């Protein structure tokens, strides 16, 4: 049985919405690749200032291993959980069954419906011996017995009736599976999906040769009728949808569950932060397609683009808000500090009884002095 992996990619995390809702944060650690994180972690926003290692929160009985969620042996990811695969080969079924769609979510054990005069052995139909076809049948008679051919062949050769055992006057003198022909009991040769009984060929309930014998949404497998899977009923049907899709219910059921139609979610359904268009000054960061077009995360422009004078202030300057908001945060501009902000001992005007000494500094409120006695 092959193992199927569920890989929690960053694209999928973005599509799931709020990462904090899906996973718990580990101790903050910057990273560029998931390989730099612990075995049960992945790198979120790699290569950015927001990069950090987060713990994988795997659904149900899946386990985090080598930076991904892994199902156990003989299991597949179906929707948001690991489910046991019914069979991967005929060996997983009983001797009289075969595995249909082995190793997939559609796997099922189907009973072998062998033709007349055959039996199910080790997942296959094989010929019965003459004695198994009818206890009176032999493959050879004694010299004193009459050989009466019954027109059947067993695994051990041509089947015969010997001596007077084959004599009859009416059908009632023969076994239920035979009729009297020319005073001899002859086995009935019935068509497929018929069985010999009461000296005639009777239809076998639930037996089929083609899909048409079964009816709507039903298929013929090895002579028996089985419900079609959702995908077989309609290629657009499924039993579960991906994280990027939403399920539209139908009134149809398959052996694999209720059938739904999967349609792509809109950008807003994928992530409330996603938009299909950004404002004039915003920077569109493409993410994934939605039902209504390509989805973007709209990022504010840089402060340098919004405020041409935006820069790192000098020691004699201070930052004041501009009212603009860039992706770095609130945008500010640099203005000259007042004399008092430059140095609490600085003044722009001294008292009449004080001596004003020049400092060489200039503030936004004028030339700065140190006043003394």
Architecture blueprint of SSEs:
Layout lengths: L4 E2 L3 H6 L3 H4 L18 E4 L7 E4 L7 E3 L2 E3 L4 E4 L2 E4 L12 E4 L7 E4 L6 E4 L2 E4 L2 H4 L13 E8 L2 E6 L15 E4 L2 E4 L6 E4 L2 E4 L14 E4 L2 E4 L2 H4 L3 E2 L6 E10 L2 E8 L2 H4 L12 E8 L2 E7 L3 H4 L10 E10 L2 E8 L2 H4 L12 E9 L2 E7 L1
Antiparallel strand pairs: 1-5, 2-3, 4-5, 6-7, 8-9, 10-11, 12-13, 14-15, 16-17, 18-19, 20-22, 21-22, 23-24, 25-26, 27-28
Describe this structure as you would to a colleague.
- Strand 23 and strand 24 form a beta hairpin.
- The longest helix has 6 residues, at 10-15.
- Residues 1-27 have low confidence and may be disordered.
- The protein is built from seven helices and 28 strands.
- The protein starts with a strand and ends with a strand.
- Strands 1-5-4 form a three-stranded antiparallel beta sheet, with no helix packed on it.
- It has helices at residues 10-15, 19-22, 130-133, 230-233, 267-270, 303-306, 339-342; strands at 5-6, 41-44, 52-55, 63-65, 68-70, 75-78, 81-84, 97-100, 108-111, 118-121, 124-127, 147-154, 157-162, 178-181, 184-187, 194-197, 200-203, 218-221, 224-227, 237-238, 245-254, 257-264, 283-290, 293-299, 317-326, 329-336, 355-363, 366-372.
- The protein folds into six domains: 5-84, no CATH class; 130-203, no CATH class; 233-264, no CATH class; 267-299, no CATH class; 303-336, no CATH class; 348-372, no CATH class.
- The chain is mainly beta and 373 residues long.
- 8% of the residues lie in helices and 39% in strands.
């Amino acid at each position: 049985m092959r193992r199927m992996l569920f890989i929690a990619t960053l694209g999928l995390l973005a599509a799931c919405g709020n990462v904090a809702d899906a996973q718990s944060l580990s101790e903050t650690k910057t990273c560029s690749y998931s390989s730099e994180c612990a075995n049960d972690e992945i790198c979120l926003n790699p290569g950015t200032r927001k990069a950090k290692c987060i713990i994988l929160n795997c659904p149900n009985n899946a386990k985090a291993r080598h930076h991904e969620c892994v199902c156990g042996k003989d299991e597949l990811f179906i929707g948001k959980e690991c489910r046991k695969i019914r069979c991967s080969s005929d060996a997983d079924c009983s001797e009289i069954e075969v595995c249909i769609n082995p190793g997939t979510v559609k796997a099922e054990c189907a009973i072998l419906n062998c033709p007349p005069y055959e039996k199910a052995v080790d997942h296959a139909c094989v010929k019965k011996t003459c004695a198994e076809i009818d206890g009176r049948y032999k493959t050879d008679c004694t010299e004193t017995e009459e050989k009466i051919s019954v027109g059947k062949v067993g695994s051990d050769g041509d089947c015969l009736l010997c001596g007077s055992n084959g004599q009859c006057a009416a059908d009632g003198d023969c076994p239920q599976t035979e009729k009297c022909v020319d005073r001899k009991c002859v086995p009935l040769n019935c068509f497929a999906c018929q069985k010999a009984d009461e000296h005639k060929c009777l239809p076998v309930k639930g037996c089929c040769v083609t899909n048409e014998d079964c009816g709507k949404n039903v298929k013929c497998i090895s002579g028996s009728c089985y419900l079609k899977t959702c995908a077989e009923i309609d290629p657009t049907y499924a039993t579960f949808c991906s994280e990027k899709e939403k399920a539209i219910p139908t009134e149809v059921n398959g052996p694999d569950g209720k059938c739904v139609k999967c349609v792509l979610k809109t950008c807003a359904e994928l992530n409330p932060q996603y938009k299909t268009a950004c404002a004039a000054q915003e920077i569109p960061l493409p993410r994934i397609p939605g039902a209504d077009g390509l989805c973007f995360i709209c990022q504010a422009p840089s402060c340098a683009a919004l405020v041409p004078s935006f820069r790192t202030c000098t020691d004699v300057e201070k930052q004041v808000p501009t009212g603009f908001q860039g992706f770095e945060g609130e945008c500010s501009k640099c203005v000259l500090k007042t004399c008092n902000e430059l140095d609490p001992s600085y003044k722009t005007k001294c008292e009449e009884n004080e001596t004003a000494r020049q400092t060489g500094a200039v503030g936004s409120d004028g030339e700065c002095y140190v006043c003394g006695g």
